[in-house]
Amino acid sequence: MALRLFVFALVIGACCAFGAENPIILSSPQEQKTEGPLWSSDLKSDYTFGSKIMKAGSLGSQAAYHYEVEALRDFHLFDKYYLQFGADWERFDFSRSSSIFPYALSSLAAEMNVAYWTGDEFYPLLKLGPGVYYTRDHITKNSFDIPIRAVAGVKIRDNVHLVLGLDADPFEQDPVIPLGGFNWKINDQFNLRAVFPEPRFSYNPNQALEFFIAGDFVGGGYRNGPTNDRGTNDAVLDYTGYRADGGIGYNPRKGLSIEATVGWSIQRRFDYYRAGPDFSSKSAPYMKLDVSIDLF
């Protein structure tokens, strides 16, 4: 009950905070009249080069492939606030596997968001992702999960906003993780988003280009499929990846954004926190491509 109240308070606070900053975020009357898109989609793909898993060197060097496709229908509520309904499919494929290390992690989830439209992109204030989160292509009756994210922004001075929120996921070792930091629009070209767990510093020489350095986090909680290993059979696996990167974003027209990123995977971790086994990989380079398309 306390968690629900906290999430509700964050959403109300976000609406108040973002609602009060329209003259700051939107720089011209023409932009203020621009409505958000009818459809939003995002396609991501990245590849992490092979690295050995510590304490499991006999497995060999393991590479990781990651894909995600998200499609949302956007419904205008009022002002710059929208409801979004859609679906999200995500998958990790691994080049080497065993009874402890699955060859794939997958999720197929509905998505229900309350989001704020800046005139250029959506910022989700509340995200619900009910769906199935499973390994080895085995969807079991207990693989259903509902991750939740709630975020609020509070203006503390011109162009500086405090960001507070939480991630809640019953399948992860820490079922509630705080989010926090600040976003500082230094000027029309530089922006610092110092928000855990995905900070980002960007430079925009013009409206079409963006250069950035950032931190990146991937993973989540999954119900492990049937295996011959008694400790991990039907157990919950918390998979996480921590990365640092830099890249370039290209926005050739409104509604189309392309980002190419190269960076370093600091660590990938397979943690069966209820069953016991906990393994981490060595670091390795990785590269990513992200394409976002909005239909107005």
Would you kindly provide a written description of the structure presented here, covering whatever features stand out?
Mean pLDDT is 89; it is low at 1-33. A 14-stranded antiparallel β-barrel has the order 1-2-3-4-5-8-9-10-11-12-13-14-15-17. The protein is built from three helices and 17 strands. A hairpin with a 2-residue loop joins strand 8 (148-157) and strand 9. It has a single domain (2-295), classed as Lipocalin. The chain is mostly beta strands.
Give a short overview:
With 296 residues, the chain is mainly β. It is 9% helix and 60% strand.
Tell me the number of strands.
17
Count of helical regions: 3
**CATH architect. name:** Beta Barrel
Share of residues in helices: under 10%
Structural class determined from secondary elements: mainly beta
Terminus-to-terminus distance? 39 Å
> What would CATH call the class?
Mainly Beta
The portion of residues forming beta strands comes to over 45%
Unreliable runs? 1-33
Largest sheet: 14 strands, antiparallel, barrel
Radius of gyration computed on alpha carbons = 20 Å
Note the run of SSEs as H and E.
HHHEEEEEEEEEEEEEEEEE
